[in-house]
Design the sequence.
């Protein structure tokens, strides 16, 4: 069984609840049916913590902390770059130092057949890239430079954008195979970095249809509208919109917001607003089962939105912007209800009382997603592309 080593920024909080952790846990768990997989993840705590977690006999994760001296050094250098951007830039800079993560990579690298990069931010650790005969894969979540250029606000962080561009360009060119989450992302990579589309294959985000708790039919009560997301700038923007626009204009609807994205707004009190903070997987499944409607008012983003997949797979009627359903070819009023910033509240009020129509739309959306986006099928397709790449490389010597 071939051995794959994966460089990863954010560790898995098992079981994963939101964000990219859902993707790489479920995708690599399924891919470990074909390969022996080691996930090497960087923790952002300032000490030498290290932990190994075995998810299956062929899938494990090493979570490696940042030594205090390097943590202090990086924080001093990046004192005006905070939040989401800071953690990403830290990874780029830390790769230049002899950290514990660097040591683990060099040790695990020796016995690995394939190296997968989840993003360009850890490319500096892979000093052998372009200098050995081991296969490299870029399994992208987003077109990272394009996304950073869109959402990074901090001026010091934006000063690193040219570097992020060069790192991703290098990774795309030196990788033997690139996976993108949507056709739009494939085309974006090819156009920006001037590479052949044939090198870029599809590996969309997915779902586990069997995990959802059966929705209980309830007597008529106040409508529950649900949003969930990690503490991530586009999600923060969505929560701000829900609080300032939707909650104030849809007073007969209760808005429930879960996940790290709700934490910055905990001091806000409104009678039809519940900010639930972070939730575990069991709580998340219960919230999905009790929601009458899911909303996804996203205005910025890249890749395929995991919330959209989960909402639809769970059979919840979805109201979303075009950005929220990007890359999925969903049809308005067939799979979901389309709404944008200027008419989102109006759409909610108009369609929320049309229960039979929403039920029909949700069933259509559920079938479409479950038929096309299961993690098992996506992993199988990835394995076929990887083996095809290996065979081609072997034939050309």
Sequence:
């Amino acid at each position: 069984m071939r051995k794959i080593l994966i460089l990863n920024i954010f560790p898995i909080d098992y079981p994963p609840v939101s964000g990219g952790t859902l993707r790489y846990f479920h995708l690599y768990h399924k891919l470990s049916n074909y390969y022996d997989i080691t996930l090497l993840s960087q923790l952002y705590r300032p000490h030498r913590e290290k932990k190994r977690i075995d998810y299956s006999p062929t899938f494990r994760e090493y979570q490696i902390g940042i030594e205090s001296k390097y943590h202090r050094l990086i924080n001093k250098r990046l004192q005006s770059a905070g939040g989401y951007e800071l953690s990403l830039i830290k990874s780029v800079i830390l790769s230049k130092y002899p950290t514990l993560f660097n040591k683990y990579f060099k040790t695990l690298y020796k016995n690995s057949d394939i190296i997968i990069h989840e993003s360009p931010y850890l490319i500096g650790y892979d000093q052998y890239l372009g200098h050995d005969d081991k296969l490299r894969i870029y399994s992208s979540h987003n077109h990272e430079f394009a996304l950073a250029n869109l959402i990074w606000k901090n001026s010091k962080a934006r000063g690193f954008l040219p570097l992020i561009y060069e790192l991703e360009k290098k990774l795309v060119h030196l990788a033997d195979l690139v996976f993108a989450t949507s056709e739009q992302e494939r085309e974006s990579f090819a156009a920006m970095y001037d590479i052949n589309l044939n090198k870029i294959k599809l590996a969309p985000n997915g779902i586990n249809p069997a995990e959802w708790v059966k929705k209980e039919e309830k007597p008529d009560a106040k409508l529950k509208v649900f949003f969930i997301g990690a503490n991530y700038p586009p999600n923060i923007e969505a929560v701000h919109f829900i609080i300032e626009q939707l909650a104030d204009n849809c007073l007969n609807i209760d808005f429930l917001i879960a996940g790290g994205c709700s934490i910055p707004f905990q001091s806000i009190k409104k009678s039809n607003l519940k900010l639930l903070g972070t939730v575990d997987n069991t709580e998340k499944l219960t919230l999905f089962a009790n929601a009458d409607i899911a909303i996804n008012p996203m205005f910025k983003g890249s890749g395929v939105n995991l919330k959209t997949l989960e909402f639809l797979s769970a059979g919840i009627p979805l109201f979303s912007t075009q950005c929220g359903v990007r890359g999925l070819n969903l049809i308005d009023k067939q799979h979901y209800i389309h709404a944008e910033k200027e008419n989102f509240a109006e759409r909610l009020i108009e369609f929320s009382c049309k229960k039979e129509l929403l039920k029909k739309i949700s069933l259509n959306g559920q079938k479409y997603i479950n038929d096309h986006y299961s993690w098992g099928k996506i992993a199988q397709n990835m394995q076929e592309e990887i083996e095809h790449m290996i065979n081609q490389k072997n034939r050309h010597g």
The chain has two domains: 3-206+375-395, 209-372. The chain is about 40% helix and 20% strand. The mean pLDDT is 92. Residues 375-395 form the longest helix (21 residues).
